[in-house]
Amino acid sequence: MKKIALIACSKRKLGADTPDKMFRAQDIYNGNSFNKSKNKGVDMYGCEDYFIISAKHHLLDKDDEIAYYDKTLNSMKENEKKEWAEVVLKQLANKFDLVHDEFFIFGGRNYYKFLLPHLNCTVFEYENSNSILLNRPISKVMLEARLLRNREHLSTVSDTKPGYYKWWATYEALDILLSKLGVDFSNISPYLEKKDCLYCIYVGIAVKESLRRRLNWHINQKHTDSAVKNGALSTLRQTISSVVAHDQYNEQETNKFIDLLKIEYFELPYAIKSVEAEQEIHKIERELMESSLRILNIQENYHPQAKEIKTKLRNIRKNSK
User: Fold this and answer.
1) Vertex 256 angle, CA 320 and 141, to 5°
2) For residues 182-210, b (16+ Cβ closer than 10 Å) or e, as one string?
């Protein structure tokens, strides 16, 4: 099985003033995201080689020679993007085993949307023109939290890798929290991360232990007297039990609410407790907290809209022991 990187072309290119001059594909693109993907992402994920996916040229070998052009998938219609992806898939099929070879796509949604269903791949999405989220794969996993009470489902989560995870709520589940907190949905809606009618309410990280152990702690921990008195409950369970039941000993109501939620998790290629894991995962946590409002996060949550909610959460938790 081969591991191949596919890197999306960049808007910034050499040769704008010399349109007839030819450049190697690996040299003509000089966007920050492209360079970080090429110089860091390929090695980070152990890829044997990389190819470039170009809006104009489709699949490019890094040594192919091309001239400057001004074309992007972002301005194409949906049927044009789909036709572009079909050509790329045919080119890949002539070079690789699309069933067994593993692909790592570095690029925006328009570049991976129609490739993703047909490849054994992991996608790393560009955040903006200045950086690429090399450490943030687009997760294919969105599990109902209740399923992780089952050992069979829990075993699908890595027990050897650190990472981070997001907890998602339907509007109905979110409304339960907001009504308890006295928060108006319309006031915070613009600041929430939304996906497929779900809202991200909490972000967590696993650095000193595996993702599996961390999620198991959140989902299956018991509300014993010692756990509650000593503050040893999962921070998420402390908050949920305090908000929905006003009682951190109320394991039943806590589980009932957790079972309404979904979990998205992301494994990262570092050793547990490593310096790299510590640095990179905490960096991701900071970025996630800054980018959107996570209403159940207290620690490290410095989002401008979080201050009042955090104060309410602290007071509720204090009075629920």
Assistant:
1) 115
2) ebeeeebeeebbeeeebbbbbbbbbbeeb
Tell whether 81 and 127 lie within a shared domain. Answer: yes
- Number of domains observed in the structure of the chain: 2
pLDDT tens column, 173-213? 999 999 999 999 999 999 999 988 999 999 999 999 999 99
Say which residues have a Cβ less than 8 Å from residue 151's Cβ, sequence separation at least 6. none
State the first-to-last Cα distance of the chain, in angstroms, to the nearest integer: 53
Does 74 share its domain with 217? no
pLDDT digits (tens, 9 = 90+) for 47-95: 999 999 999 999 999 999 999 999 999 889 999 999 999 999 999 999 9
If you compute the radius of gyration of the chain from its CA atoms, what whole number of angstroms results? 22
3 CA to centre of own chain: 21
CB 251 within 8 A of CB 233: no
Are 53 and 99 in the same domain? yes
C-alpha torsion sign, points 285, 288, 292, 294: negative
| Residue 197, domain extent | 142-318
DSSP element (H, E) containing 213? helix 211-220
Residue 242, CB half-sphere, CA atoms under 13 Å: how many?
22
